[in-house]
Amino acid sequence: MKYLFIPVIVAGFFLSGQTTAQEKLYPNMFPLEDVQLLNGPFKHARDLNLKTLLQYDTDRLLAPYLKEAGLKPKAESYKNWEGLDGHIAGHYLSALAMNYAATKDEECKRRIGYMIAELKEAQEANTSVYPAWGKGYVGGVPNSAQIWSALKKGDFGPYRGAWVPWYNVHKMYAGLRDAWLYAGNADAKDIFLKFCDWGIDLTSAFSEEQMQRMLDTEYGGMNEVYADAYQITGNQKYMLAAKRFSHQMLLNPLSKGVDNLDNKHANTQVPKAVGFERIGELSGDQQYKNAGSFFWETVTKNRTLAFGGNSRREFFPSVTSSIDFVNDVEGPETCNTYNMLKLTQDLFRVNPDAKYIDFYEKAMYNHILSTQHPQHGGYVYFTPARPRHYRVYSAPNEAMWCCVGSGMENHGKYEDLIYTHRHDSLYVNLFVASELNWKQKAITLKQQTVFPEEEQTRLTVTGGKSNFTMMIRYPNWVKSGAMQVLVNGKQVLIQQQPSSYIAINRTWKKGDVVDVKLPMRTTIERMPNVAEYAAIMHGPILLGAKTGDEPLRGLIADDSRWGHIAGGKKLPVDQAPIIIDDEIASISNRIIPVEGKPMTFKFVNEKIINPEKSLVLEPFYKIHDSRYMMYWMTLNSQQYVSYLDSVASLEKEKLALQNRTIDFVAPGEQQPEVDHAMQQQNSRGASAHDAFFREANNGGYFSYQMATNSQTGLALFVKYWGAEWGNRDFDIYIDDQKLASVKNTGRWNLSAFQTEEYKIPDDMVKGKKNIRVKFQALPGNTAGAIYYIRLLKN
Fold it and tell me: Please, one GO biological process term (predicted)?
């Protein structure tokens, strides 16, 4: 469907009292209030999340907004990711609004009203106190006045020195939109549109070149919210703004079917693609449509793990660096999947293809549901795919990561895509216990199931009478010819293939029953570009196995800067359980159910090297507070001896280096450089040879603050590329004392990585908890490129 008629519709958005805001902004979706979850894992998650949300202090969340507006905060701001103060409040507002829509919880409504009143006061104060740049501003970005006033004049210095200001304010744009969209707060809509006008005015004098330079820094989904503002008002200025906030670096290649995502920060790109799709949906612009659609295709098919997540160390790996999914513990980030599900939902609204729901279901069960702790409700940032590693969780009022913000929302909108409608058809997309009130048709429907613990679902018309087509999804994980649908006990002839919809048109009435049989099978799914590793799936559900509780350091994270990373000991991958099988594709013959335990399995007649005492396969979303297997090394009988010898040798070297490491920096990567308080001049970060680097030119420098743990007897480990061109002579300093003069000009002439260790005299580090390591280029030379830095024990 092409939504070229939208501008006509939006002009009358507020004339009808019969349609909710959700239906106006997202055609074909049922309002959350019209879909009620019944007992099951998703209702448990939603209810637990609501309880968790209400433990947060709204005054602490609002403090940055009042402070930046020159008002007195009513409480101390949360300790935030140095420079990202304010980013959680918008997510929180969205989460309250979604939960209010779904549950009508009065405390959610009260908090929304309170936050909107405070934000309105902050917006009015900014307009009054900062007339030159602040009319309509309502952000909590630290040093807002300095950053935005300079940026409006075309001075990018303070903007570049801050941590992702547009990303930060985008969260409040979305929160205000959602407070209107889901909770009906009219003041929120007014604040939102004034905030949109602020952004337009701030950048109105920018050339296209300046806009694109600004967008080189992560900016969240600013193009999406401007597209939403256009749909709300019908005012073309917002569509123009949405296109101006679209990054051509990504838009142009994607629109031509070119994947240029290697080594790009994943969650910087996904929100851009969400915006591309929204612009395409609302304007009919084919370039934007193509870009949003192709992004989804290439990420879900080529860059996504079996549980629906993507990225490692927050970046999309290249083909050759995909082994990092095994080597690293910073696996797929929850925010990425949060945004991929938004993109999936948007694409499905326009084109209700079952392939979108196949992915949505996989990611919803295996990633999103799994990232909430089922007892205390904490959120997960990284989900390691490394064998026998683990995840850590946030605690309320601490650890205010980005994935805490998106996590607040994730568990409040499970109702979103269970059912949708289009023309005269009702789509049954997900097999989740729930009740639907289709007001337009005066029909109520109840879905009873404990899927995936049983391979069926039952749909009962509980009220009303109406003629329409019921579209029942035939999922891609059911074999061709295996699905069964019965209407009032009579079997429906099914000619469709998996990943499609079965259409049943009739006059439906109270008492009609539809039984759907969903036979699941066990399959394997290879790790992208790493064929030696495979995940085990049963239907759409990833099966994992607990592998012990060797020290789970930081299981519940504190406020420390790296608390979101499961930093406990890495266990050798060559000593993890390894499956030896010449016919791994037929693994279902060697996995059997455990009697009396639904969705629980064990291996039989399968050769496993390094077997645990008891390897029980269960849904990954149920595994918590434990090390686990998600991916298994799977080798045939010819491979395993030579391959394991090679793996064991490399693993021994890597772990020996890891055990010596006190601190490390990955130059060129956004997060590690922020974490280590980088300073630089005439320096740039980029990627080459499937790795990131930083270098400084012609007398420039870059430096990092690194922790010593108050130890002496240290060495600096530096990784270089062995075939650099040009003059590469530079000095290395420790707190302004020269450690070494490096002469790398024409040194190796070998296309391979080279490493060096520089012993650090004890008097340079004695009595110090931190040191600053500086790489200073000589005149006419380049310092670097530096690909990795470690501070080691000798």
Answer: carbohydrate metabolic process
Which positions ≥6 away from 257 have C-beta within 8 Å?
290, 294
Residue spans of the domains in the chain: they are 524-551+566-638, 662-793
**How confident is the model at residue 51, as a pLDDT?**
98
Q: 187: closest CA among 122, 101, 106?
A: 122
- What dihedral angle (degrees, nearest 10) is formed by the CA atoms of 100, 101, 102, 108? 0
Spatial separation of the C-alpha atoms in residues 380 and 398, rounded to whole Å: 13
Inter-residue contact 474 to 490 (CB < 8 Å): no
Beta strands in 415-464 (DSSP E): 419-422, 425-428, 434-438, 443-448, 456-463
Largest CA distance in the chain: 86
Among 411-415, 613-617, 716-720, the least confident range:
613-617
Mean pLDDT check: name the lowest of 8-17, 187-196, 200-209, 592-601: 8-17
CA atoms of 544 and 557, how far apart (whole Å) = 23
The predicted-structure confidence for 345-394, as pLDDT tens digits, reads as follows 999 999 999 999 999 999 999 999 999 999 999 999 999 999 999 999 99
Which of these, 751, 98, 20, 782, lies nearest to 415 by C-alpha position? 98
Residue 457 to residues 433, 483, 518, 561: CA-CA distances in angstroms? 8, 12, 8, 45
To which residue do tokens 């696996």 refer?
331
Q: Is the pLDDT of residue 751 over 80?
A: no
Rounded CA gap, 666 and 671, in Å? 9
User: Rounded mean pLDDT of the chain?
Assistant: 93
The stretch 256-270 carries a mean pLDDT of 95
CA distance 608 to 602: 12
Q: How far apart are CA 552 and CA 123, in angstroms?
A: 44
pTM confidence score: 0.87
Closest CA to 305 of 361, 366, 368, 380: 366
On the question of a cis peptide bond just before residue 696, with omega within 30 degrees of 0, the verdict is no
CA triple 627-631-637, angle to 5 deg: 120
The residue length of the chain stands at 794
d(C-alpha 140, C-alpha 544), whole Å: 41
**Distance between alpha carbon 223 and the CA centroid of its chain, in Å?**
18
Question: CB 553: neighbour CB atoms within 10 A?
Answer: 12
pLDDT, mean of residues 748-763: 88
Q: Which is the CATH superfamily of the domain at 662-793? A: Galactose-binding domain-like (2.60.120.260)
Per-residue CA distances from 384 to 217, 315, 389, 627 (Å): 27, 14, 7, 10
Is pLDDT above 70 for 5? no
Q: Which residues share a beta bridge with 471?
A: 427, 503
DSSP-derived secondary structure letter, 571: P
Contact 379, 404 (CB under 8 A): yes
Instruction: Give the C-alpha separation, 383 to 474, whole Å.
Output: 29
Confidence of residue 8 (pLDDT cuts 50, 70, 90): very low
